[in-house]
Write a structure and sequence with these properties.
The chain is an alpha/beta fold and 656 residues long. It is built from 27 helices and 16 strands. The protein has three domains: 155 residues, Up-down Bundle (Substrate Binding Domain Of Dnak, Chain:A, Domain 2); 154 residues, Rossmann fold, CATH 3.40.50.2030; 239 residues, Rossmann fold. Helix 4 runs antiparallel to helix 6, helix 11 packs across helix 13 and helix 11 packs across helix 16.
Length: 656
């Protein structure tokens, strides 16, 4: 009997624009991630469980009933823990590389070596400097910036002596005490990465608990590098503020030169957007009506937040944007760029332009972006797109007419300003009062990527809607925010459609108090706080609430969710969220369950030590229930402890 052929269904998405492109290109022979996922089935169970070791070349060693240890004698718990450390290091290295790139750009500004960049927000410079205990009185912006940059560089390279300054100055003191007590407080990013790689070498650390604690130490370096990147980007380009735009593939325009900006680093994309706005006449000279920039992934979030550039799509459907036939150039910098975009582009006219020495793609068009010649290089990039507009094949152009209005740009400063319109003296009391009075149950941060192990965008969407109905105040970053932008959850219509009565009343109160600032717009259901590197911005909100309540962060009813986690960066972010006291839901189980011991540390023991913990749950409805339960437990405890403090006239207990 002939074996039944596996049905091939690549429509693993709920995004209507993505579905339209997939349907239009069915049978075209153009391969995308949706096809490759199906071709990859079944995936390796040993890899999924984390019990496959390739650290030395005696392997790969797989833990089975027959072979309970690797060739060197490493048990399953050692293999899983070492793999976890290295996964966290991958994420930490990626974010820290971004942070270092930004720091070096600011160093060039401080030393006067670049002409196209400068200090856009001197007030943010002073606020960050004062937080870091750098003197600002009677000093020039350049002098202050130089000291700030030097301190940031120390946080990358310090060998010993002082602990990481950015970590120490941005979280509550109780967390620092906990990290020192557990010996996971880092001196610097680069030292921690080096010692962690050494610790996971063959024949080194075999203790799973020691290794898990090292993973948390590395994750705190991830937090540090991310926070440096966000602070310095705000100084360089200005903190985001609320602005309106549109999202999804309908933002493409058939008669425009369409440039998609993709990756994570705003150093390049900000300059390309500026150059494109200056070069409209050159586009018209080749028959276009002008130039339009749009974003993909976190570079898209960066230019959306500060420049109002429309998001085109998020991570998983980046290839589908090319398959509209209307993208003249996709300009990429670093991180989350599928190598497959080049193969797809070769079936259309799109030019893939890589720009960074450590993120090249074979056969792509490479332009080495140099900050010292930033505008010159940006214009070179834009001219490639303009010239390529003439190569478009009209018969291949199909733009799905799907787009949604959005409001984004909620930096912590912008968020605080909204709250201050209600309570100028204690802005965050607006949130803490709403929680204490039962109007809000708490808050949740939606973050993370997309992953075809679950249908694209579905888990992000389902969990957000479920929690909003239950009066959870949602904030979002990264590709999670990209989902909400594309599917219409970043606007006021979604408030009316999905918000519970308490959340609706809270948002409407902010609307009423900010009428003039919002200029006729209304606030969205979900507050878009930036790119994935800006998760520290979202965590700063938790720190602000902890300080308002005068408690340690594990007591704050604030959880995180990565419904479609995919990358090593998601593992590192989730790990520092746990260490910093958050319940963290992950919607695609990472390669940990192969060791019940390590799995138990993540799911249970972490809460006893740090107050934060992981929850693995792929079913979005069940994940919503678990998140709601975790937040409600904290809210209930907070109210009980507050009543006890008032009854006995004592301070609210800081511990959880």
């Amino acid at each position: 009997m002939a074996e039944k052929k596996k049905e091939k269904d690549r429509n693993r998405t709920i995004d209507p624009a993505a579905l339209e492109v997939l349907a239009k290109t069915e049978g075209s022979g153009v391969e995308t991630a949706y096809d490759r996922y199906l071709n990859m089935q079944p995936q390796c169970n040993y890899g999924n469980a984390g019990i496959c070791c390739t650290i030395c070349i005696q392997g790969p060693c797989r833990i089975t009933k027959k072979a309970s240890k690797g060739i060197c004698g490493a048990a399953g718990y050692t293999i899983v823990a070492r793999n976890l450390v290295r996964s966290v290091l991958g994420g930490t290295s990626a974010h820290s590389d971004h942070g270092l790139h930004t720091t070096l750009a600011l160093s060039a500004v401080a030393e006067g070596h670049v002409k196209d960049y400068g200090i856009t927000d001197p007030e943010k410079l002073k606020r960050v400097a004062e937080r870091m205990e750098i003197s600002t009185e009677g000093r020039s912006d350049q002098e202050i910036l130089k000291d700030l940059v030097d301190l940031a560089l120390e946080d990358f390279s310090r060998i010993n002596g002082k602990y990481s300054a950015w970590l120490e100055k941005t979280v509550v003191p109780e967390r620092i005490e906990k990290f020192i007590e557990c010996n996971i407080m880092p001196y610097s990013i680069h030292r921690t990465i080096a010692e962690s790689m050494a610790q996971t070498h063959m024949g080194m650390d075999a203790d799973p608990v020691n290794l898990v604690f090292q993973a948390l130490k590395a994750a705190l370096c991830d937090y540090t590098g991310m926070h440096i990147a966000t602070d310095l980007s705000d100084i360089l380009f200005g903190p985001p503020s609320p602005s309106a735009s549109e999202a999804n593939m309908g933002v493409l325009e058939e008669n425009m030169v369409n440039i998609a900006l993709h990756g994570h680093n705003p150093i390049l994309s900000e300059m390309v957007v500026k150059a494109a706005r200056e070069m409209q006449d050159e586009a018209k000279a080749v028959g276009a009506e002008g130039i339009k920039c749009m974003g993909i992934c976190c570079t898209g979030n960066e230019v959306l937040m500060r420049q109002g550039v429309a998001p085109l799509t998020n991570f998983l459907s980046q290839e589908l944007a090319i398959m509209t036939g209307a993208v003249d150039a996709m300009v990429v910098d670093v991180q989350c760029i599928m190598p497959g975009i080049q193969s797809v582009a070769e079936c259309y006219h799109t030019k893939i332009i890589t720009t960074i020495p450590n993120a090249k793609i074979p056969s792509s068009y490479y332009i080495d972006f140099d900050e010292k010649r930033a505008m010159e290089k940006a214009k070179e990039i834009v001219r490639v797109a303009i010239e390529n507009f003439k190569e478009r094949d009209p018969s291949k152009v199909h733009i799905p007419q799907v787009k949604n209005k959005l409001i984004a740009g909620f930096s912590l400063e912008a968020f605080e300003e909204l709250l201050a319109s209600v309570n100028p003296d204690e802005p965050y009391k607006v949130i803490t009062d709403a929680v204490e009075q039962g109007e809000l149950e708490g808050l949740v941060l939606f973050a993370g990527c997309n992953n075809l192990k679950v249908p694209h965008d579905e888990s992000h969407y389902t969990i957000a809607v479920e929690l909003a109905k239950n009066n959870i105040l949602p904030v979002a970053t990264g590709c999670a925010a990209g989902t909400y932008a594309k599917l219409g959850l970043l606007n006021s219509d979604a408030v009316e459609k999905y918000a519970g009565e308490g959340l609706k009343a809270f948002i409407n109160r902010l609307n009423e108090a900010n009428k003039e600032k919002l200029k006729g717009e209304k606030l969205p259901l979900i507050f878009h706080m930036g790119s994935c590197v800006d998760n520290t911005r979202a965590y700063d909100l938790m720190t602000a609430l902890a300080r308002q309540w005068k408690v340690d962060t594990p007591k704050v009813p604030y959880a995180a969710s990565a419904p479609e986690a995919m990358s090593e960066k998601a593992v590192s972010i989730g790990s520092w969220c746990v260490a910093l006291g958050m319940p963290v839901h992950v919607g695609v189980v990472p390669p940990i369950p192969g060791s019940p011991l390590v799995d138990g540390i993540a799911l249970q023991i972490a809460q006893d030590v740090y107050g934060g913990y992981f929850m693995w749950e792929e079913d979005p409805k069940e994940a919503s229930r678990k998140l709601l339960e975790a937040i409600r437990e904290r809210t209930w405890k907070l109210r009980v402890h507050k009543m006890a403090a008032e009854k006995y006239e004592t301070e609210l207990s800081a511990t959880w």
